[in-house]
Amino acid sequence: MYIGRFVVVGPDVGAYRVSSRSFPNREISTRDDALTVGPTADAPETDNPYVSYNCLRLVDTPTGETAAFGNGSHVDPIAEKLELGYPARDALAESLLALDYEKDDYDTPRIGATIGADGEALIGTVRKDALLVETVEEPTLVATYEKNAPESFDFEATTATEAATDAYDLEFEHAVCAAGVARTDGGFETALENGN
């Protein structure tokens, strides 16, 4: 089954996976306090605005370090609002609503999640027909297609490396790359999986 890009988040761990039929020549790289999706060296040139973006950022907030992740340029305003002290629910909802779904041929939803140092985790999506933001008590998945509303999901990863690898290895079609994040006693750890 092809569900497109997706996030999965539990209270302490999360992952984002790029799945793509149209732009498979992408990878995730580390840049400052972010993980960034971008074209590989052999990728054909494109002017598509949805191909490159920060998919995961760690930011300092008034309540401690917080992870924000998702499938597009909305990750940056979510992170910026968190840094300014917005509650995570507001940062997620306002950023998703402001940038809205992607205006491509498929009306692709934007998806995102946050994990806070305070133990709060949220997941959200904005589609052509809805804005959904939910608090997460158990592993929850939302994708751009087919599974475009948050749903409980069996995800047992406990570390960032496991989260990235497990998300990449899920049997959903057209895996390209994945990022993982986990809260630890010393803060957040991140990992990436480019399928190499």
TrEMBL record:
Inosine monophosphate cyclohydrolase-like domain segment(s): 2-186
Pathway membership, UniProt: Purine metabolism; IMP biosynthesis via de novo pathway; IMP from 5-formamido-1-(5-phospho-D-ribosyl)imidazole-4-carboxamide: step 1/1
Keyword Hydrolase in annotation: yes
EC number: 3.5.4.10
Reactions accelerated catalytically: IMP + H2O = 5-formamido-1-(5-phospho-D-ribosyl)imidazole-4-carboxamide
Signal sequence, renumbered to the chain: none
One GO term of the biological process aspect: 'de novo' IMP biosynthetic process
Described function: Catalyzes the cyclization of 5-formylamidoimidazole-4-carboxamide ribonucleotide to IMP.
Family: Belongs to the archaeal IMP cyclohydrolase family.
UniProt-recorded name of the protein: IMP cyclohydrolase
Organism expressing this protein natively: Natronorubrum daqingense
